[in-house]
Write a structure and sequence with these properties.
Strands 1, 2, 3, 4, 5 and 6 form a six-stranded mixed β-sheet that branches. Strands 9-8-7-10-11 form a five-stranded parallel β-sheet, with helices on both faces. A three-stranded antiparallel β-sheet has the order 13-12-14, covered by helices on one side. It contains 15 helices and 14 strands. By secondary structure, the chain is α/β, with parallel strands linked by helices.
């Protein structure tokens, strides 16, 4: 059911029980690395197979190949570096092959790393190629520039959090694949979002649902920039929308625990390949996917898919133009379906909608379902 994992095999790099205890005892002797929230997200996604075929943080050769060519050394498409930053002091303590304990900020063991080597990066070079800019005002560039220049590569083992394992909204790739199979779905479309779903999103999701067996609504739940809405607020808005406006038997809601890189086109491709690992066959790409500010063209994130063959991607992008409400058509539409001029179109940017919500103002019902707006305003004004 669904698509094959990227690279043909779904990676599993987890440990629990007695094996986990032995690893912790052995790794502690070689030192500890405290992971940032972003690195913890990557560790979880590496361990559960969402980043298949990666089995750990990239080494120097893999990093260089991905930054320069958007491919792993094997030639397999992979657009974004997945690396573990370390300070100069930490780098000096790391010995190749000597297991290191990875912990959360409060000291909880999160996994282990078997280092394959330490290397340095050229931050400006990475920024220019991955983000298309070295402007420190770009949030992804700012994160890169504010961190250390050292990286440590190596395979990982992730220690799943027991509470996360029981979370029905935090399904691993193996769990989504099993669920799709139990539902009899073979053609599954994924929708990625870091924002509340407005009417334009709903429109393109339903257009996609007309051609596939089911929809994976897969909002990003990791770290985002400060003015993005908190995941708890967004999640409630998704639940309200699905409860009232979607067929329950054809939608699965689950969280994607990655952090937002804001890398535009490269991140759109990255998001698609990750959803391939979750078992999806199709991926929705709308306007300015994973973009921020004016750093990327409106449809740059769609054009990047044309650089690769369908066979090497293994997931089909569904490309949608900007949707809007047309007063003349009296419905949601796009320039492909609506003959009327812009004066008849109702549309607001995500930034404008967020600003209205924070001010306690409901966006027009043509753009946001009133029930969703009510949830968002109540949550934000209460906060």
């Amino acid at each position: 059911m669904g698509s094959l994992p990227h690279g043909g095999r779904l990676v599993k790099r987890t440990a629990s029980g007695e094996e986990k205890a032995k690893m912790i005892a052995a790794a502690r002797r070689n030192g500890t690395l405290v992971l940032s929230r972003a690195a913890l997200s990557d560790l979880m996604l590496l361990g559960t197979g969402a980043y298949s075929p990666l089995e750990g943080f990239m080494d120097a050769a893999t990093y260089q190949s991905v930054v320069e060519r958007m491919r792993l050394p094997s030639g397999l498409v992979w657009p974004l570096p997945v690396t573990l930053p370390v300070t100069a002091v930490e780098a000096a303590r790391i010995r190749e092959g000597a297991m290191v304990l990875l912990t959360t900020g409060d000291g909880r063991p999160a996994g282990i790393l078997e280092p394959s080597g330490v290397f340095t990066i050229d931050k400006g070079h990475e920024a220019a190629l991955v983000f298309g800019t070295d402007d420190p005002a770009h949030p992804g560039v700012a994160r890169l520039f504010s961190g250390p220049e050292y990286r440590v590569g190596g395979s990982v083992r992730y220690f799943p959090d027991e509470s996360a394992e029981k979370d029905s909204l935090l399904l691993t790739p193996r769990q989504t694949r099993a669920l799709f199979a139990s539902l009899g779905w073979q053609r599954i479309v994924a929708f990625e979002t870091r924002n509340p779903i407005h009417r334009a999103h709903e429109y393109i999701q339903k257009c996609a649902l007309e051609t596939v067996d089911g929809l994976l609504l897969h909002p990003l739940a990791g770290e985002t920039k400060g003015d993005d809405l908190p995941i708890a607020v967004r999640l409630r808005s998704y639940e309200v929308l699905l409860e009232r406006y979607f067929p329950k038997s054809r939608v699965v809601l689950s969280l994607f625990p990655a952090y937002m890189r804001y890398a535009g086109p490269r991140e759109a491709l990255f998001h698609a390949l990750c959803r391939k690992n979750y078992g999806c066959t199709h991926f929705i790409v709308g306007r300015d996917h994973a973009g921020v500010g004016n750093y990327y063209g409106t449809y740059d994130a769609q054009r990047i898919f044309a650089r690769f063959s369908e066979e090497e991607l293994g997931i089909t992008p569904l490309l949608f133009e900007n949707a809007f409400y047309c007063r003349k058509c009296e419905q949601m539409a796009s320039s492909k379906t609506c003959p009327h001029g812009e004066e008849e179109h109702v549309g607001l940017s995500g930034t404008t909608v967020r600003r209205m919500l924070h001010a306690g103002q409901a966006p027009p019902p043509e753009l946001t379902r009133p029930e969703v707006a009510e949830v968002l305003i109540e949550s934000l004004t209460r906060a």
